[in-house]
Amino acid sequence: MRRPRTGPGAAALAVTLALAGCTGAADDGAVTVVASTEIIADLVRNVGGDRISVETVVPAGGDPHSYEPTPADAAKVARADAAFTNHLLLEEHSLIKLFDSNVPTGSPNVSLAESAEPYGATLIPLVENLDLDVVWLGLAVRGKGPGRTADVRLSVTAVEGPGRFAAYLTDALGQPRVYYDSADGITDADVAVLPPDAHTHLNWSFGAAGEYRVTMTARVDAGDGSPPRQLGSGTFAFAVGVDPRGALRDGRTTLLDAGHTDLAVDLDTGQVFARTDEQGDIPAGQVVVDVPDRAVEQVPDDARFAFLGAPGTRVWQLPQAVLGKHVHGEIDPHLWQDVRNARAYAEVIADTLAEVDPAGADLYAGNLDRYLGELSTLHTYVGAQLAKVPPDRRNLVTTHDAFGYLASAYGLTIAGFVVPNPAQEPSAAQVTKLTETIRDLRVPAVTGSPSPASWCRTRPRSPARPR
């Protein structure tokens, strides 16, 4: 293996990687490489040159966060001599399953983001903070368990309370997907499925004021034909429209009334617990979640939300906060926005190609050295250009919250972004809010995204929270 390199960090937009140059089309009989995205494919082409043939699964302009693969994609992956994904939950879980199920035995199947750290890549956490006036409550899985293609099932197995309980996700088009609903009794259908080491957002709805007890049980399916493994269970208390201190009398000692919290399972210990940003991990039996009267909403006059009750009915609801299916991990997966990380990706690719095709090792090493030099030149250029901007004017407003590495490398401030979920259009309210941000910061220039569908992101309220 080529010795991992280290060096000073740098950053650039994904589109600038292409400016560092591609080496040309593939010859007949070339090594076949399949990449999940065009960004990764561009890196591979620069290292592999004419000796390789590169195909991508997600088409140009497509969104890896939500792309659903086809049978033709499976056939494409099955021809790979080497395969590359980004992972760290950048790609849709079904896309990762496609690679892991179809890459031929003996062909490398490389997760670049997870392989690049020993080569000098720097990883940063994915921070979310919407400053809601109630708890922002989601679901999470800690740990990788039996592998990245496993399914972790978080089931609600019991509900006690004076009214209907439901938890659902609202997708980018406003369509609700119900995970838990006590109206017809608790069944095997009351389940949410997540990949390992992932997190997602939900709306949590209660039909009447009072104290609720919601019991959650977890199990994991490795996806290899072995029986699912049962994990732990835990019961969470919710104080809905009542004094939450009353619910503390049964031994629950921790009140959650603000901030970001996940009801979570640990794949290593099997424990079901509350994972909070401020207070750390709290066992399920010690938690009371406050759902105050300020969380009261009216069920909209929309047949899609009839499961919540009749139009105009009051419900107490903790909001999903970000619209759309939005499954992610603890680490920001957009590593390539830092040129140091792009360099590390290229080195992983070179070592992998040399492993698959030893006769081409010298060519790959030469291409790598040339490409690393071009990336270094790019880093110097971008740094010099951004250095001309006064530090107090380096406020970056983007469509998608994907530029944390760029901001970190060049001292920029992420002042705002439109949407957290790609492939959705912002509402009029989000456009107004972003316009106010741009005006307040006196942003002097606005540049359109080269791929709106790929970079869009929003902070809306749920459709069940009408304005």
Give the tags.
single chain; 467 residues; Rossmann fold; 6-stranded mixed beta sheet; 5-stranded mixed beta sheet; 10 helices; disordered N terminus; disordered C terminus; Anchored repeat ABC transporter, substrate-binding protein; transport
Topology:
Layout (H helix, E strand, L loop, with lengths): L13 H4 L13 E5 L2 H11 L3 E5 L14 H8 L3 E4 L7 H10 L6 E3 H4 L20 E7 L8 E10 L4 E6 L5 E6 L9 E4 L4 E3 L1 E4 L3 E12 L7 E12 L13 E3 L3 E7 L5 E5 L3 E4 L3 E5 L4 E3 L15 E5 L20 H18 L4 H27 L7 E6 L3 H7 L2 E7 L8 H14 L10 H4 L12
Parallel strand pairs: 1-2, 1-3, 3-4, 5-15, 13-18, 14-18, 21-22
Antiparallel strand pairs: 5-10, 6-9, 6-12, 7-8, 7-11, 11-20, 12-13, 15-16, 16-17, 19-20
What does this structure look like?
This is Anchored repeat ABC transporter, substrate-binding protein. InterPro entries: ABC_LPXTG_lipo_actinobac, AdhesinB, Bact_metal-bind_prot9, Lipoprotein_PsaA-like, Surface-anchored_actinobac, ZnuA-like. It holds the Pfam family ZnuA. Keywords: Signal, Transport. Belongs to the bacterial solute-binding protein 9 family. The chain is α/β, with parallel strands linked by helices and 467 residues long. It folds into three domains: 162 residues, Nitrogenase molybdenum iron protein domain (Rossmann fold, 3-Layer(aba) Sandwich), CATH 3.40.50; 183 residues, no CATH class; 64 residues, Rossmann fold (3-Layer(aba) Sandwich), CATH 3.40.50.1980. It has ten helices and 22 strands. The strands form five sheets. A six-stranded mixed sheet has the order 9-6-12-13-18-14, with no helix packed on it. A five-stranded mixed sheet has the order 10-5-15-16-17, with no helix packed on it. Strand 16 and strand 17 form a beta hairpin. Helix 2 packs across helix 6 and helix 6 packs antiparallel against helix 7. It starts with 13 loop residues before the first helix and ends in a 12-residue tail after the last helix.
